Amino acid sequence: MKSFYNTLKIKEYACPDNCDICREACRKKQREMPQGASGIKAVQIPQLKANTAIACNQCSEPICEENCPTGAIGKNQNDGVVRIDQDTCLGCGICSLVCPYGGIDYDPVTRTTFKCDLCGGNPECVKACPEGLISFEKSRDIVQYFNTDRLAMGTPLCWGCPAELSFRFSMRILGKDTILFGAPGCAVLMICGAGTQTYCQFPTHMTNMTNLPSTASGLKRYYKKMGKNLQVVCFAGDGCFADVGFQPLSGAAERGENIIVICYDNEGYMNTGVQRSGTTPYLGWTTTTPVGKKSRGKQTPPKNMPLIMAAHEIPYVATATIGFPEDYAKKLKKAMDVKDGMSYIHLFSPCTTGWRAGSDAGVEICQSAVETNFFPLWEYEKGDYRFTHEVAKPKGIVEYLKLMRRFSHLDKKDIEEVQRLVDKRVGRIQSLTEMGTHEKESCS
Fold this sequence. Notes:
It contains 15 helices and 16 strands. It is of the alpha/beta class. The protein folds into two domains: 131 residues, Alpha-Beta Plaits; 291 residues, Thiamin diphosphate (ThDP)-binding fold, Pyr/PP domains (Rossmann fold). Helix 6 crosses helix 12 and helix 8 packs parallel to helix 10. The model has no long low-confidence stretch (mean pLDDT 90).
């Protein structure tokens, strides 16, 4: 698994004209660089309207290392970063010539070579980019789980379903010492299996929608009495947790039951015909909130389930999506560490069929929901709120809405109102994060 490392990701051909902010941030961090040199390069081709940035790819077999006459270049096997030893470097510039990606910067005046070293795992260019076009992909946080899939090949769900991808990913992290509970809905088809066959390599049980947390709590208590500390996980949809089965969920949270609850939210009752649920978004189309002369989709905002669960003051609440798997992995691990109450994860999970989107658009919709603040990523831990993925410059909500036809009926005024509701929701979380910061400052 050592071939998988954290890496810098730059969105191609999206940079503003003449922007040099990332380079300035790099030079400020690496103070020994001469004027004009940087570990990241700006590429400006006005004729092609191509503006982007490039940096070292930290190659698995660096050709620059092979061609360095003094052996000044080497790849660190712990973090994967290719570094230049300036004390050994001859200043010949051969490395900058042989690099096929243009990832090395050479200054002929000082005869010095520079390149990206990922700032020790906290790249300054990522924080500096005002457009949010540079990201640090923490692949090592998730690839450690890729060698074991505890679910059978194939799926009874729709092609491209993010719920299946999320379920598989969840179980790789939760591990074999897990007892899984599900309730009627799309994903339960993977939990209960078909006929005498099962999809899972661990114990599972299907309950009714009205007694899922109650049944899981009873089993957890039984095993605790037997002296066994097994993980009990409930994986079900918004129809169960936000609507039909909310009361037992609330009761289990209030009682402090030590179970993990994952609500995969596809914003409707998709398994029975795309009917609206309590989390269906404002003006969203469903078969029970149709669009026509007398109706324009759901007329009320969605229920804010993560905040409702945080109001129970349970140890841990988080929002997550498979579009940002490293963030989700960390939150699952935190939920697994809780021993004094319930952990609740609200998992954004598009239904491309019910949302009238392309079957290959699931992950893109997940990422767009975060990048537009439609679904911000945050967590509540022991009374404190914080964003886990702050969007420096959110895209307009229209970028998200246009990815699916369930919003195709919206006019300009409708979109403005949806944007207002999105801004209001993310502003509420921002206020809660600031409140916690002020309380800590006053205590200190």
